[in-house]
Amino acid sequence: MITISLCMIVKNEEDVIGRCLESVRDIVDEINIVDTGSTDRTKEIVSLYTNRIFDFSWIDDFAAARNYSFTQATKDYILWLDADDVFLELDQKKFLHLKQTLNRNTDSVSMNYHLASDEEQNITTSIRRNRLVKREKHFPWIGAVHEYLAVHGIIHDSDIAVTHLPLTHDTNRNLIIYERMLTEGKEFSPRDLFYYANELVDHGNYKKAIEYYLRFLRTKKGWVEDNIRACSKLADCYHQFNLKEQEAHWALKALSYGIPQPETCCRLGFHFLEKNEIETAIYWYEKSLENKETEKLSFQNNACSFWLPHLQLAVCYDRLGQYQLASKHNESALLYRPNDPRMLANKEYFDGLTKNGK
Q: Which Gene3D superfamilies match (predicted)?
């Protein structure tokens, strides 16, 4: 059985760090916590779980801090988490099974990262990340912000999930780091251009975001998944300015980078639905159901693979007077969101049509 070192970087996480460590204490063999300047009770709480607490002076560089944390590991494999992450009970059991059965030739284990869920506990946003890596490989973290772990070799894609449960979020932290990098004249990698544009969108600066998404795409060096997402984000930006043709252009541009993604298909479906081109809208919504997201290293809007296209297909078929088919899609949507008022109203409407013989 392999042994595992947990390596984390933290700062002022007294509200969540105990929850995180409680969920992992029985599945790792060593806990290493690197503190980057806490002024609250974080270290006191951590000391209940480990005495391996290290200090690191914060230099606005997440990769540097994470790389330092990895140097503290002494076991076969390294697991990394953020303070507001947890392993739910089922995933703890899956993790223990993995620990007992993992082939030692494995260089990295990827896990699902559940970022958000709706009131029905459907996972709405997720991503897959390399989460457990062989220590002797010395895989590096890269990037001052939105850092990533550069791995290669034999990778095992597990069905284990890490669940993100934040209580608060520093919405300005990453933007401040990027803008400091710009002020200091530091060169942005393609990944930096992409994520800086994302930060600009999150802060409502759509005009500047467009500039940086375009700069990112012009490098022609981005990951395919990021290229597709940049096109989708550009469509979002132009939507903010009510520029319909540009919005549609960038939705279509995403198709040039690979198999149509569900989010792209739903966007195109809505574009044609707005134009009352119902048959074309139906085509794209059905494609979103056919091309379900595979678990990969990119953000996924899971609604676009499941309930949303069904809801929109109900609208489309209703407009065509095909009420039984519309009702069928609405029922499919309700399987995912049984308490959604839109779908319940639709059900009442379609039930009424059935009673009237339509």
A: Spore Coat Polysaccharide Biosynthesis Protein SpsA, Chain A, Tetratricopeptide repeat domain
